[in-house]
Model the fold of this input.
Amino acid sequence: MNLLDLGEVILLHGMDGAPVVYRGAPLASRFAAYLALPGSQTEVDGQHVGEAEVSWLAPRIEVHGFTRVPARFLCIDVAEQLLLDQAAHIDGLEVSRLYRTGNITSSPTMVADIGGMVRRALDIHDRDPEAFAQAGARRAFAAQLSALLLQCHLQAAGEPAVARRGRPPLPRREIVRRGIEHIQRSLRGEAAFSDIPFAVGASQRSLNRAFDDLFGMAPHQFYLVERLHAIRSALRSAAPGDTVTGICSRFGVWDLGRMAALYARMFGLQPAQELSRAVGGKPSATGATSTRRR
Done:
């Protein structure tokens, strides 16, 4: 069993024997999500948990589970206030749905994205126990993961409100303007990037088309480029005692390995080298493989 407590979210990767009957309930002021991994035959309150489903548990509501064969699972415990704060900014999401215990039928892709994010965080922590030591990294991970869980609720409720018929389409430049505004809020830690369709009021397809027309890239790529430049600026103005981990956590980076690879690909040197040059008072050249900002 692998447990990672990040405060607002707690992650658990475990395995049940078989056959096993169990019962339990989330603590007060906490929600929980249960994902049965491939090969499992698990039922929660008599409902099979499939690959396109998340078993959603409301605070203090007891559930009963049954595992027919040895089953691997992921469990996500989320602070109630975190979800409520995010849900308040999502058009079309009924907060009352969050307090209904039962299976959420989403999509295999969405559930796989949630599971992949949890497993990646557990792997990173195993390799580096200090990876989530910074509050910024913990908050960013919690916001991203809870945003995905809320998207599952939206999918289960039907088509997101941003794609409803009857709403006049936004001009593409307005979509981009709102998108950039949301991206900047995300970089300041004021919003989760994954909430961008709801913040803009447009479908993901419309967002992708608008950003591709103006910048030749999808919103997520634009966000990554902006974040790398923001991190670079912070590294170049670092003071003695600053660390790469501390600086990156300000911008919601919790997967330092992936970020460092992207940084080196764009600027031709590692973040640690950039920091060392800045603190040492040396000019920070970008190298021959640098990419000019759009």
The CA atoms of residues 67 and 281 lie 60 Å apart. Residues 159-166, 282-294 have pLDDT under 50 and may be disordered.
